[in-house]
Amino acid sequence: MTIPVSWFLVLAAVLFGVGAFGVLTRRSALIMFMCIELMLNAVNLTFVTFARTMSDIGGQTTVFFIMVVAAAEVTVGLGIVVAVFRRRSSTSVDELSELQG
Amino acid sequence: MNTVTIPSIHYLTILPVLLYFGAALVLLITSALWRRTVPMLFSTSVTVLTSVAVLVTTYFQWRGLDHAGASTTVAHAVVLDGFSVVASAVIAVSVGLAALVAHDWAVRENVRGPEYQILAMAASAGALLMTQANDLIVIFLGLEILSLGLYVLVALDRRKTESAEASLKYFVLGGFASAIFIYGAALLYGATGSTNLSTISYFLGSNVVLRPGLLVAGGALLLIGFAFKVAAVPFHMWSPDVYEGAPTPVTGFMASIVKVGAFAALVRVLISGLGTQLDTWRPILWVLVVLTTVVGAALALPQRNAKRLLAYSSINHAGFILIGVWAGTARGSAALLFYLMTYAPTVVATFAVLTVMGGLGDERHSLESYRGLARRQPWLGAALAVLLLSQLGAPLTAGFYAKYSVLAAAVDAGGSLLALIALLSAAIAASFYLRWTVVLYAEPDDELDAVRVVVPRATAIVIGAGVVLTLLFGVWPGPLVTLAQHATVYFLP
């Protein structure tokens, strides 16, 4: 069975869209982090798909870079959430009231 | 026996990045092994000396360019050209100056520790990598190294709730922007078959693109990612909150470093990578410039907090710097470089004044607390007045020639209307800079509120250096202009 390349790309685009939608609409900082991770994984899928179609190793190695960056981002992000949670006992961004945009 | 060939590395090219990153690691390990807290003087000295070392390195890189011209290394992922060398030098100067301000701030607030210096140097390594990157992935790595350091720096003041909240806000929007950026890189990779800017440029120059949709979407997403990072309207929402919530010396640091790093990378992506698609990205950038300059200036008007006001003012400046990118010419890039060279020290010195004015607790940032400052402390008041007038673009300050050169480059590239709109926004911006300057020289109405602030020695040096540079290059811009022009001559195509 063969699967057209476009399916992978569309799936990645949909995942990316779901992630972006989540970041913009959800109000819990933790869910927002998860949505950013989803976006990054959608990017990984896109890179791998293109790398396979072009038989180019570059796109696949890029995925490792993105994974490392995503892990580092989560480490820092959770640290910040803990710092905020200690003061507020909540991770909802609606309650971040000290600063008004 | 099988062998693996690794790409050759020209160490002088990546020496600035290695110096900052190495110094950050050394300081981190030292502070872990030291029985007590590392003395502040030690950690600050490490940062300042490393910055000097980076500055010296850029001098040797510049000399090397005269003989060998621009070159790439590490499998064409990192580039050494005039543009990267000058941008690196600007970053080194800003990091050194900001470290001195942060030192005095930490002593005053009694948050002794090497954290600021370690994170600032690590972030600077990322910014330097962005100025030298010739590959979308390297730009992404530089961007992330810069941003991750900054997220923590913004949250540095653990006694204040605003600091952590600003950091969370910055983190969520920054992570969102990074994800958008790298998705753009992925689509561009799909359209052109490479993430290397030179290869992309070559591919686009010698092929008819069959899937322009992928290319345009990729480019647009990259642009959105950059717009978030430099706080261009409509992607600027985070900037006033983060500027306000972050400790003031950190605000000065990020206002200068992020702009230099992000704009250097943006120029490289758009002009060196997507230069053949000039007609596609220019209209988008046109709209971005108009929105950024006008909205930045207009929203600054009602602000009553000095840090928020400067945040909107920096949005206005980002719009002006974008004009240099929009021009898409060597002249535009030279003007952009000149703008960054003069803006970075000015903004670091401005936030140095704000740091001392903030007083213990870093809280007195309302414009009212500046009333009569020049009467109580004539030198400090005059210094702030000069720095504000330079940001306004008053003649005889460096800001004047910076604004003039980007606008001239825009007119040269056929953007008279754009230059006119930007000029109008500068007129709006002038009103709040002037209002602030007038407040400095106004009669203080409440004697009780009029406290004299202490200006520590290192901060005084930074403010003095900022004012001297501003005035010197305002009266005598020739050498810097020549430097910027030479730097773009060496620009790697």
Helix content of chain A: over 70%
Mean pLDDT of chain A: 88
Q: What is the chain-wise order of helices and strands of chain B?
A: HHEEHHHHHHHHHHHHHHHHH
Backbone shape of chain A: elongated
Number of domains of chain B: 1
Shape estimate of chain B: globular
Rg of chain B, Å, rounded: 22 Å
Multimeric organization: heterodimer
Query: Could you give a short account of the major beta sheet of chain A?
Result: none
Average pLDDT of chain B works out at 91
Encode the helix/strand succession of chain A as letters: HHH
- Main β-sheet description of chain B: 2 strands, antiparallel
Count of all domains of chain A:
1
* Rg from Cα of chain A: 17 Å
Number of helices of chain A: 3
Q: For the largest interface in this structure, which chains are involved and how many residues does each contribute?
A: A-B, 42 and 40 residues
Could you explain how this protein is built, in words?
The complex is a heterodimer of chains A (101) and B (493). In chain A, 78% of the residues lie in helices and 0% in strands. Chain A has 101 residues and is an all-alpha fold. Chain A has a single domain (10-90), classed as Helix Hairpins (Orthogonal Bundle), CATH 1.10.287. The radius of gyration of chain A is 17 Å and the shape is elongated. Chain B has 493 residues and is mainly α. Chain B has one domain (11-489). In chain B, a hairpin with a 4-residue loop joins strand 1 and strand 2. In chain B, helix 4 (115-132) runs antiparallel to helix 5. Chain B has 19 helices and two strands. Chain B is 76% helix and 1% strand. At the A-B interface, helix 1, helix 2 and helix 3 of A face helix 5, helix 6 and helix 9 of B.
